[in-house]
Amino acid sequence: MEEYLLLMRLDILTKEAQPSPEQMQVYMKLYRDWVGGIAAQNKFVGGKGLSTEGRVCRHNGIITDGPFAELKESLAGFIIIRANDLDDATSIAATSPILGGVGNTVEVRRVVMHDTQ
Asked: In whole angstroms, how far apart are CA 4 and each of 13, 56, 69, 82?
């Protein structure tokens, strides 16, 4: 099995798009249940949520506040899973409850280990 990074993107900036505290509890339960199902298959490696603040480092030493605060689609978090191949990882990602929100996406990327020598 190989490792895949699932990047969760959703609107975490627009005030009107934010769920109520009650809705957030429901969404988090759905998310925890989804991750629990992945873990039950021994395919969950790890993951974290991300804050809305950060910085972007660019070429020539340019540093800006970020991450891309002008975009509604923000990187909200990630998990790493084990899957047989890209199709298997995509099938898992396609069941994410995050996709219940209009405009939300889950990007699937295989983790590639580079030789450091």
From this structure: 27, 24, 26, 6
